[in-house]
Amino acid sequence: MRLLVVEDDADLNRQLTDSLVEAGYAVDTAFDGEEGHFLGDTEPYDAVVLDLGLPKIDGLSVLENWRRDGHKMPVLILTARDRWSDKVAGIDAGADDYVAKPFHMEEILARVRALVRRAAGHASNELTCGELRLDLRASRVTLNGSPIKLTSHEYRVLSYLMHHQGKVISRTELTEHLYEQDFDRDSNTVEVFVGRLRKKVGSDLIETVRGLGYRLGEPVDG
Ligand code: CA
Question: What is the pTM of this model?
């Protein structure tokens, strides 16, 4: 899963990014509204953390522009604690949730988890496929109850496939949700990660759909 953090406070931006990376997400960062708007307009994010008070273009305008242009990714806005009107304006502009500053990082992580899983149609923090279980709170994977050790990229691949299980995911889509923007991408590496994952979770769990991509679990419509 890939996120965008738009926050002009450099320290806060780094704290948010570090915590989200540690929780298993690929994270892009922007430090003003112009850069943030551009990234959200051109890259496919699974969720965005958007500060409202930003240089160049304010967060509310960034959000309104995204929604006007049809971008539907979940957006969590960061607001000032005493500005209830900001929360109302933000939600009316298309925000899915808000957190008031100052906040505890755990609250951001919980709300981002919820936005990402809801967008993929999941109500629970435990995603399962047969005997494979992904605990989103702990970023932990078990097979038949035994923990499986994954690298960060393997975890990202598996998390994306688990969120979208039953659906065919193309290599391009998987690649786009796997890496940060400035990462040196090579679509072949997705195949390498899938190969390693199969060795760890069982070779029949992730199916290769010829010419189309990968599917985890039984096929579903859509
Ligand atoms: Ca700010």
Answer: 0.95
